[in-house]
Amino acid sequence: MSSAPASRSQHHPQGAMTLMRLCLLLLLSALATATNPGITARLTPRALEFGRQLGLELLQSRLQKEHELNLKGSYHSPLLGTLTYTVPRIHVHELQMNDSTVDFVEDVGVRLRVQHARVRLSADWGAQLGAIQDKGTAELRTRDLAVGLVLGVGVDGSGRPMVWSASCDAHGTSLHVEFHQGHSWFYNLLAPLLQRVLRQELNKQLCPELNRGIDQLEAALKDMRVSSQLDPFAAIDYSLLGRPLIAAEHGDVAIKGEFFRVGKCQQSPCSPLPAALPVPLPAALPVVHEPMLLLAVTEFVANSAAFTYFTAGALRRNISGDMLPRRFPLQLRTKSLGLFSPQLQERYPDQPMELQLWARQQPLLSCRPDALRGTLFSSAEAFVVLPNATRVPAFLLNIDANVTGKPSISGNRLRGTVKLTGLSVTQVTSHVGPVEVTRLETLLKFGLWLFGVPWANKRLQAGVPLPTLHGLRLLNPQLSLQEGFMLIATDLQHQT
């Protein structure tokens, strides 16, 4: 008996392909110049195991429904003639791939191994032998499907990830077919011959089907965005700086992590520090097991953001008297600020004032094991607002501040606290005589300590939600500060 393979109008998801996509998603989900990344993500074997289990759950929920198949073919027998058949649809009842593993392949990518996979499905069928037409249902079972697939992972010239099939071996040695309804008793007599032919055809199509899925994934990655606009001023570049570095026990992804101005290609002058992920984890990080994901965010990311907003002119603000708390020790009126400049009150008795505040140079942030340290360089020009709304310049001051911060993660939100550690006020110019900057500095420190820092900490403690990717969220994340970068160690959870 010979067979003429038929065409299929649609390809269907395969278990191995879905698992590979999950592993690739994890590998690339972890959020510069030269080869130093702003962000480095490390994926551990526990993350691959998480991807394997999640992939099985998603695959089973997706496949256990009816699928259009439109399979057609024919078999020729010298005694009976030509039997043509159609299988318009199938329904998957059982899929067991518990004997499967996912691991790293050094310098290549990710490997999926499946042994003794069990699949049970039913199908509608129609058949014609000569002038005789028939139809019914059939049940197909296989108990020892084996798949070995290696997915190569790389990066193209634009920083987008790329994938390919590095190797594939898939086959099954056992296939059982049983027909129901119609003249099933007759077709069941031919079942042993049909099973052999179907098994050969299945083994022939498994790897090409998996490779087609990988090609579709690669085509989708070509359209993947590698930057995102955050607001009218800034966007962030999260392209890959090179191909993922795959070792036997982990995979590292180097992400540029640089902010840039919208509509401009302006390079930040600060260079990122290497974000070498420590192995094992620092002793200061209390973990009871190896996390799925390690994420190192260097101080370069924050400094590139500061540079971008500074050069875009976004770090400017006008402050009027009604914007300050009533109990703030410095009020924006000539009566209050005249305590530090007697000529101000003499020339403009009890008039409202406004303050123009801006960063005169880029703020700088450094990461140390004890805290985040920041230096702010600002200038403040005071104006008197006359009854006719004319603004008259009074004096210009430079105000520099040193702050320390402690970030934290809880409830899947990034939070923090900040503390003022130093403040310096100097006079640049004055149209109302000398300004007693020493007294002004002391009172300003008190006001910031009493009102400014609590106001900032209240908002920092509210936190911001950590971004999720394709339904993934961080589970029990832990944060530690290292020299030059912030390290997040976390497991992953899929949100349903």
How are the SSEs ordered, and which strands pair?
Layout lengths: L1 E3 L10 H14 L10 E5 L1 H19 L2 E12 L3 E16 L3 E6 L3 E21 L2 E24 L5 E11 L4 E5 L3 H39 L4 E3 L4 E4 L7 E2 L4 E5 L2 E4 L31 E6 H13 L4 E5 L13 H4 L4 H6 L5 E7 L4 E4 L4 E14 L5 E20 L2 E18 L6 H26 L1 E2 L6 E11 L2 E10 L2
Antiparallel strand pairs: 1-3, 2-13, 2-15, 3-4, 4-6, 5-6, 6-7, 7-8, 7-9, 10-11, 11-14, 12-13, 15-24, 16-17, 17-19, 18-19, 19-20, 20-21, 21-22, 23-24
Large-scale geometry: elongated
Percent helix among the residues? 10-25%
Taking the sheet with the most strands, its summary is: 8 strands, antiparallel
What are the low-pLDDT stretches, counting only 5+ consecutive residues below 50? 1-35, 283-287
Rg value: 33 Å
- Distance between the amino and carboxyl termini: 50 Å
Mean pLDDT: 82
Count of individual helical segments = 7
**Protein structure class:** alpha+beta
Number of strands: 24
**Per DSSP, what share of the residues sits in E-state strands of 2 or more residues?**
35-45%
Could you write a compact summary of the structure shown?
The protein is of the alpha+beta class. 24% of the residues lie in helices and 44% in strands.
Structure write-up:
By secondary structure, this protein is α+β, with helices and mostly antiparallel strands. Helices cover 24% and strands 44% of the residues. The strands form 4 sheets. Strands 1, 3, 4, 5, 6, 7, 8 and 9 form an 8-stranded antiparallel sheet that branches. A hairpin with a 3-residue loop joins strand 5 (100-105) and strand 6 (109-129). Helix 1 (15-28) crosses helix 2 (45-63). It is elongated. The two termini are 50 Å apart. Residues 1-35 and 283-287 have low confidence and may be disordered.
